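Hey, can you fold this?
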Amino acid sequence: MRPIPHKLNKDDWGFFQVGKFKTYSKLEAIEISGKTKAKIHWNYNDQVFDAFDWTQEPPGSLDFWYGARAQQLRDTYDYIVLLYSGGADSHNMLTAFVKNNIFVDEIAQFFALDGSSNDKMSEVNKETFVTSAPNTQQLIETNPTYRHTVHRMIDGGKFQTTILLKQNPWDYWYTQANTFFCPWGQIMARLREIEPAYRALTDQGKKVCFLWAAEKLSLDLDQNKNLAIVFSECGMSSMVTPERQIKNDPGHNDEAFYWTPDMPELACKQAHVVKRYIANFSRTSVDNINVFTQDRANQVTDKKILSFPFVSNNTKYHMTTRGLHSLIYPYWDHNTVVTPKPPSPFFGSKDVWLRGSSTPDTGYTTWFPKGVVWLRDAVRKNRPDLWWEPPTVNGVYRGGMAMFSKMYKV
């Protein structure tokens, strides 16, 4: 399998275009758009993906392409840091290496004991201490291939207050994220600064890869009602921030395992697996895959409904996250303990410590009036159409301004 030319890959994670203006900051793009009245386009590897034929299903199995991607990364980097949260996406990523007996230099988890009263069973930490950390340790102890794999545990809670206090309060909104601005996201994007061992590796001349389970397959219907793959920048900037792209650190490359211009066949194969399932769909398969009719979907409270609908026999259906996992992650156990996704792009379970914080400029009452509300007003001033604000959930602010790539019919 072809290795990746070792490159500075800041553009692989997408950028914004407003006419001829290019930026990695969504807020800056919004301000330019407000002044020029030009549309904003999120360019996610357009040059590569436009030239790829998404309508042709790649040969071979999903397992083959997962293994091919793992081998491609192994052939490219001296040191791979596989960031394993324990969720379905990262578990499948790790499985791709294990099933193909491909060595991983390091498996890492980051959590927040500090700031959560050192409670390993809290919502924020349970996934790490019940799922990912035990799985990692068992792998190292029982599989000879991973006997020398480093298992690194990073308590990001120790750094949250420090990081927030160092921020210029306004630059934060321009360079530290593009959708998920929650403080915990700053830990994810700063692992190489928090952990000295990573800098030491590059000082030794090693090519280091931070490997993210980015991102879950996203499908929708295009304007002609065809099933199409679409890429969203929503979660990408919590892994690689605009600041990280601008710095373009030559010692550390961030790699997305699934959404990669170096192997578009992987995401394409996933999409065709789902497309084939839909083509053969019957009412009797609803409960097997947890796909619900539109009416029944409204009654489901414990299953997240994905964005893309499809029509079978003149009836509209939606697929759940559980259903998608069943199709594209064959080794996933749906009963695995995982941390729920944040209810808001500004506040998640790992940020609960903010509510009781009295530290200047980091407390919850400061974070919202001086930060989130400022961001909301800035967006509304420049591009009011880009701000959506549904009712709050448990008092948590849920506004946002997600953007998407071009759509590619499969």
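Oh, and this one too while you're at it.
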Amino acid sequence: MRVRSAGRVGGALSLHDAIATLFGVERVLKALPSPTDSNVLVDAGTADDAAVYRLTDELAVVQSVDFFTPIVDDPFDFGAISAANSLSDLYAMGARPIFALSIVGFPANRLPLEVLERILSGAAEVAREAEISIIGGHTIEDAEPKFGLAVTGLVHPERILTNAGASVGDVLILTKPIGTGILATAAKKGLTDAETTRRLVSVMRRLNKEAAEAAVEVGAHAVTDVTGFGLLGHLREMAVASGLDAVIDATAVPILDGARDLAEFAPGGTLNNLKHATTFVDWNGDVPRMDRVLLSDAQTSGGLLIAVGHDRATPLLAALAERGVSEARIIGHFENAGTGRIRVFSSR
């Protein structure tokens, strides 16, 4: 639903250029006429994670599509990560995925079909974890591999989780550590050890299914997933859509092991996110540049950012832990009505 990209790895378009282009594309999309169909419950107007269309008073269909070029070298892992990333859009809406279609770009004249088979096998494994089937799709010849899913799900029209429902005083909880953009770039350069790479892949291919179930159970007010625009960029979307200003404690944000040490290898898209953040972030003077880079890091298949009432924050953390989402952390809160500004401080 949201316009975004993981950028190209080794292609003509850099991650920096891709994300810079997307900021412009979103401005173009916002200038288009809004839907007039009253059954359209969520559209592109709030940069939410998926589109929602009401079928009946008790049933709405949720759809999203996402695809990108390889973020890791192993084809199986690439397919698994891309599938998890695509499914995340529906989990962020509180929806239950029911099936998916593959979107494939593949250079059949340059790569053996066994590579494509491995990509699809990785995606199929994650789809099984999500308890859905990939029942078709579309393939084109392309200069480099691209893969993703168009995902369809269902939700009750009155139980949709959007990015626009947060309230003053809501606590912000992040369910996965950040730093995947930095580590993936470092891994491409051969700068990560086997354990760091394994951990990186494990985090990116992990579904947000359990986190979404906990958010729905406890009664979260607003949810989004953290991907290409980084933690600050996606929090900004939630804050603007909800008409609020937010506060983040940089020290409280969970960071993947090794990401801070390798922050100098931040991809161009991360640095572009950081530059854009200067238009809406108020940095306390004691926030180190390294932390500013990490909070802007362009994520792939990141966690959910959940806004929940202060009295439900502890029950939500408990519900997440019961489902194995053990790295979830409280990272800030919404402090007042506003225009989407974010104040970042460090409690170190």
